[in-house]
Design a protein that fits this description.
single chain; 389 residues; Neuraminidase; 4-stranded antiparallel beta sheet; 24 strands; 12% helix; globular
Length: 389
């Protein structure tokens, strides 16, 4: 069980600082208010660190292979579950989400993204569109980004279960979440056409895109699908509806791009990551391919997931990540598989049966994301270090 320190932190990070309720009547009261608020903010940061540390202690106590480096964390979208599998046996050794299509304390609906932060797990409850599941003829929202401990307890969240909106503590189809080294969380809030950076006090401290307004002009996005922090401090965004990948700075200027709203290079860019050699690995979902692009726009190599035997015509791969071993891990969404390909584009590992949906042994249903525990090649690591390696 998570210790009492973590339990106290759950309360700390999920409620407002009591100092905000103080009424200033004179300068001394105002100074007192500021001091107390600053102290509360420090408590929030301490709580964030304690949650991760407590989760690590809990994981060590389990001793059942949870969070083992090399295990694969899979966002099994339409099974409404996040699973950790042993790649040697394809067995599930940990799960969050009870399969329900109603967002709640033990469920996650349409999970699209997850990552390990120590032994805690950051999860994006995206929700599912109308008709995607038998129990969701009109769609089933979730709209939460959650931090989950090893025992499946939600210790922090941004967004409210089943509530769609763009106001404070509200999201609209959050498709991706990235834990930043400063302990903030980068959320790709697709339905609100924005990428937001949120602290543990649930304040938005940075935003790219105008809430609820789509476009391809300055500070505009259209259906963004992912965002990663780069080593230079810029943000790499897969702007799916604009068929482009853009690198923006904190002042919202674009420094690099590939594709555009009226171009043909990409069709529904689902994900992008910057590799150590300076190239950008892009998941081009609408074209059913993965491509590695040089800084000058040259395509170095590509891999079509619909060209393999048994594939459906449009599998719409949703995520491709380079691994430490030089292989690429692909979430081949509507082929119902996660596959690992080597440099010769041979499939060397898979989870799920191609084009067959299910929730039994070695079966998946619309896997949207997969990551290897401890491998942050090309993506944002949760701690400070060179995340290009």
């Amino acid at each position: 069980m998570v210790n009492t320190l973590a339990a106290g932190c759950c309360q700390c990070v999920t409620r407002k600082c009591p100092a905000r309720r103080l009424i200033s009547r004179d300068g001394g009261a105002e100074l007192h208010r500021r001091i107390v608020m600053n102290f509360c903010q420090l408590k929030i940061w301490a709580c964030a660190a304690a949650l991760i540390a407590a989760g690590a202690l809990s994981a060590q106590a389990q001793g059942n292979g949870f969070n083992t480096p090399g295990n694969v964390l899979i966002s099994d979208q339409y099974n409404n579950r996040l699973i950790e599998v042993n790649p040697d046996t394809n067995e599930i050794i940990w799960q969050f989400g009870d399969g329900s299509s109603v967002a709640g304390p033990t469920s996650v609906v349409g999970v699209n993204d997850a990552q390990r932060v120590g032994a805690m797990t950051l999860v994006a409850g995206t929700g599912v569109p109308a008709g995607a599941e038998p129990t969701c003829p009109d769609g089933c929202p979730d709209n939460r980004v959650m931090l989950v401990d090893p025992n499946g307890n939600i210790t922090w969240q941004y967004g409210q279960a089943g509530v769609t909106g763009g106001g404070p503590n509200q999201l609209n189809t959050p498709v991706q979440n990235t834990w930043l080294p400063n302990h903030h969380i980068l959320i790709t809030d697709q339905g609100n056409a924005r990428v937001i950076e949120v602290n543990h006090g649930k304040q938005i401290v940075w935003q790219y895109g105008q809430t609820g307004i789509t476009g391809d002009g300055f500070n505009q996005l259209n259906n963004p699908n992912s965002a990663e922090l780069l080593a230079n401090g810029h943000i790499l965004i897969a702007d799916e509806g604009n068929n482009r990948v853009i690198e923006v700075d904190r002042k919202k200027h674009i420094h690099w791009s590939y594709g555009c709203a009226t171009c043909s290079e990409l069709n529904a860019a689902a994900f992008a990551s910057r590799l150590s050699d300076g190239t950008t690995l892009i998941t081009d979902g609408g074209n059913n391919r993965i491509l590695d692009v040089a800084s000058d726009g040259t395509v170095i190599w590509s891999y079509y997931t619909n060209a393999r035997p048994g594939s459906v015509s449009n599998p719409a791969p949703s995520r491709a990540l380079m691994l430490k071993n030089g292989n690429v891990l692909i979430s081949d969404q509507y082929n119902m598989q996660v596959i690992e390909i080597d440099s010769n584009q041979n499939i060397v590992w898979s989870q799920g049966q191609i084009a067959v949906a299910g929730n039994g042994f070695d079966m998946l249903n619309g896997p949207y994301d997969a990551k290897v525990n401890g491998d942050y090649t090309g993506i944002t690591p949760p701690q400070h270090h060179d995340h290009s390696h």
